[in-house]
Amino acid sequence: MTLETQELSFAYGAEPVFAELALAIPPGRITALVGANGSGKTTILKNLARILRPSHGAVYLDGRSLAQLPTKAIARAMAVLPQNPEAPAGLLVRELVGYGRFAWQKPLTAMTAEDKAAVREALILTGMTELADRPVGTLSGGQRQRAWIAMALAQNSRILLLDEPTTFLDMAHQFEVLSLLDRLNIEQGRTIVMVVHDLNQALRHAHHVIVLHAGKVIGSGAPDAVLTPQTLAAAFGIRADLIHDPRSGRRICVPYGLVATGE
Ligand SMILES: Nc1ncnc2c1ncn2[C@@H]1O[C@H](COP(=O)(O)OP(=O)(O)O)[C@@H](O)[C@H]1O
Ligand SMILES: [Mg+2]
Fold it and tell me: Which ligand does the CA of 43 lie closest to?
């Protein structure tokens, strides 16, 4: 399933967040979207999922413009994990995950055996089975994040769009979430687009990286080729060494300073 944009432009008000973006998300791969705060990552993800509509240009799913597709067709193809998801008070984990099935259900009908199996599977994959009857509001940050990921998984879509899935998690839970995404990608061939702040997570887990700076793509391609000292200076204003990690065979990013202003 292909996902790409042509001449994608978006503005909340008068000032465009980005203009004329041509993005191509490699199918069956993990793409990391990186960039400083306010560079437009969330806005791009929302346009890819049609949560926001472009002011100009379009997003194409398998060559068809999202503007022409029914909502359910989009939801069957793509699941979204928002940056700061909020569940209604009192909602149980099992109910939240069940919401992931809406794209597959007929209005006003009970969950089918297939829906129930998808919910069960999503709870198992995220290690949430034992917490299924807890209200989402009573979970720790890491558990809550896994509950939302379970909801996205229950949707059974080929494409997962995740906005900062690891922010606010401790290191073990970050590792858990990223290993889960690796597994979904390797074993099930799902296409994953994730916004991450930790560049080492992009270097380690992504096949493809898109670097945004003030709404412009300033780098796109293989992580080692794209995440260079020059790009990191331009996108984040940091000076960093990229050194070889003998364990993963990839590079790791070690920031050591800020780019002096006026340079
Ligand atoms: N709902 C909104 N209304 C107006 N401006 C917004 C809104 N959401 C984001 N912006 C602005 O759009 C730009 C990009 O924001 P965003 O896509 O959230 O960036 P990122 O996710 O990279 O931090 C920022 O300048 C931000 O202030
Ligand atoms: Mg954001």
Answer: 1
Residues in contact with 201: Cβ distance below 8 Å, sequence separation at least 6, in sequence order:
32, 166, 174, 178
To the question of domain 3-258 being in CATH 2.50.20.10, the answer is no
3 state SS of 145: helix
Q: How far apart are CA 257 and CA 246, in angstroms?
A: 24
Pocket of ligand 1 (CB under 6 A): 12, 17, 35, 37-43
The 3-state DSSP composition of the chain as helix, strand, coil percent (nearest 5) reads 35, 30, 35
| Residue ranges per structural domain of the chain | 3-258
pLDDT tens across 17-34, in order? 999 999 999 999 999 999
Q: Which two tokens stand for residue 47?
A: 């346009």
Distance CA 74, CA 90 (A): 28
Q: Does the global pTM surpass 0.90?
A: yes
Cα 40 to ligand 2 centroid, rounded to whole Å: 7
